[in-house]
Amino acid sequence: MEVKRIALIPGDGIGKEVIPEGVKVLKAAAEAEGFKLEFTNFDFGADRYLRDNGHLIDDDELEELKKYDAIYLGAVGDPRVPAGVLEHGILLKLRFDLDLYLNLRPIKLFDEKYCPLKNKTTADIDFTVIRENTEDLYISAGGFLRKGTPQEIATQEMIATRFGVERAIRYAFEEARRINKKKTVALCDKSNVLTYAHNLWLRAFNEIGEEYPDIKKEHYYVDAICMKMVRSPEIFDVIVTPNMFGDIITDLGAEIQGGMGTAVSGNVNPNGISMFEPVHGSAPDIAGQGIANPIAAILSAAQMMDVLGFETASKKIEKAVIRAMEEKETTKDMGGTLNTAQAGDVIAKFVKEA
Amino acid sequence: MEVKRIALIPGDGIGKEVIPEGVKVLKAAAEAEGFKLEFTNFDFGADRYLRDNGHLIDDDELEELKKYDAIYLGAVGDPRVPAGVLEHGILLKLRFDLDLYLNLRPIKLFDEKYCPLKNKTTADIDFTVIRENTEDLYISAGGFLRKGTPQEIATQEMIATRFGVERAIRYAFEEARRINKKKTVALCDKSNVLTYAHNLWLRAFNEIGEEYPDIKKEHYYVDAICMKMVRSPEIFDVIVTPNMFGDIITDLGAEIQGGMGTAVSGNVNPNGISMFEPVHGSAPDIAGQGIANPIAAILSAAQMMDVLGFETASKKIEKAVIRAMEEKETTKDMGGTLNTAQAGDVIAKFVKEA
Ligand SMILES: CC(C)[C@H](C(=O)O)[C@@H](O)C(=O)O
Ligand SMILES: CC(C)[C@H](C(=O)O)[C@@H](O)C(=O)O
């Protein structure tokens, strides 16, 4: 029997409540499909940070994590810790140090009743954003001059490398070919203003695009793409974009697909370990009440199964989630009456029945 | 009789078609209100650039422009000129060299039928974005190393100064007080990741905010604000944000208020000349057909009148536009049957009747 080992990082707040539901559903899917998943818990997050002298993730732990087949992350962030510390020390550290250079964010509406847009069907909102995940404004380079004075200036560096940009763009073209839908890749940048960093993106896109004559190329400035995502999301297939704009447009995407409750984020290194997480945060305002919606975490688990090669298990989880939505067997935020654990139970049951 | 002198820069594409309609409506408003507007045409744009050896705007012309009371701009951009050239050489040059440090972008839904969101009323979508307009990623600083090789890297610099950030934030607080609605200013940044440039923003916002105890302060990361703008735009009053994010969220704002057809952008220097423009571009695909929607240009003219102190004229233009929408006396993109000139005629007539 095939065995995969999953490192769990529930993290903070509702992360700790939704990851167990994902595990519940994963176990049901593995049992149904005849493979085995082993889970190991890692306690990185605010509690550990506060208890353990500011501990985040050290080099040994990073090496340890690399031995797993995948990482399944809840969320990090806690009001007791200064903003940015846990994000940088855990989430961004894992993305950068494990070279998780692709952030795969499917934008998919599962049920029209959750869509905030007029006249859009589930067929209209179904595309993928490939966000470059290791460069751009996220490299934490910058500084202050005369900090705290009226003459203060602060800088922040955006960096793009041909190496980093090319591997993201190439993946996008391959993905458009693989999913074989509209066979279109759209670049989202701001090369009319960012005439250095995004000029590199635009040139790389045009050059690599020539190797994919079967794939249509489109190009949108980031401001224009936000409008299009609201007005005519049906035009999109695969979008590739630098890190910062990817952050922005995928949150907008999460909203048009019905909100954070269903949005997933796969941080992927095709040659190494990958990490899967719901897009939502730790939501300190509702943490500890047992009311968090586990669906995004459960769909992240489905994405993990897909990337690990268990496509049928992935599809079964996705179908079970859609059934739960249709039957309104959901938490309150999606119109149901269940608590977090009950919502997870229902989906695990639907996976077994599938 | 009070006289104001307006410099017209129709620019490219549909810019040349919509500015004359704005002028038509402005003349009607000035006549109705008993003041006088004088218009002088400047031919900056693609035709001039191509005819005149790459001419954009030179220093003498810039000095000349400073003598006017306001600049009324159509749009720049033309497929015959490399992307970025006209944007940098005209639009951004004017914003920077005239120190137009505030970009005022009201997000206002005039008529529910144009809103792409479910269940939102005109009362729900009515807020203002103050976009800092002279710093951030727009300063054109950056470079290439090993350009054109597989080892290429490109950099782009984001700069924030206390001076530049403070004047934008201060204006936002004053504006929230002046309009006296929700008395709330929201900062939109990404200070959890951009720990230098946006940390300066966050500190400045908190410090200056203390001087405005009567104004509520809110803080959103840019990704979160995009979601909120779609889910619950009714929570916003005044938003202040750095240049690049301002570009993005105001286009999203334009879309939720019914699309580019009604979105306006005031580039303001409270101590000097200001420039008013529709948010839409030159739209080469529909230019020359007489079908462009002049409403955004006309509402920009209303914004110009407001800033120049002709508040009644401004209100009259806005009301005339709303009436045109209600009566579907609009161009095709807004459901009407009129061409550009007819749509302008109707609004000018409604201004006179107001
Ligand atoms: C928490 C934050 C650092 C992160 C990001 O900006 O990438 C989040 O918004 C995301 O999109 O995963
Ligand atoms: C044309 C472009 C340079 C400009 C910008 O990015 O500011 C436009 O998008 C705008 O918002 O006015």
TrEMBL record, chains A, B:
**The UniProt record lists the keyword Zinc-finger:** no
Q: Which residues form the Isopropylmalate dehydrogenase-like domain?
A: 5-347
Keyword match Nucleus? no
Q: What is its EC number?
A: 1.1.1.85
This protein's assembly is summarised as:
Homodimer.
Which NCBIfam families has this protein been placed in?
PRK03437.1
The protein depicted here goes by the name 3-isopropylmalate dehydrogenase
Q: Which organism is it from?
A: Haliovirga abyssi
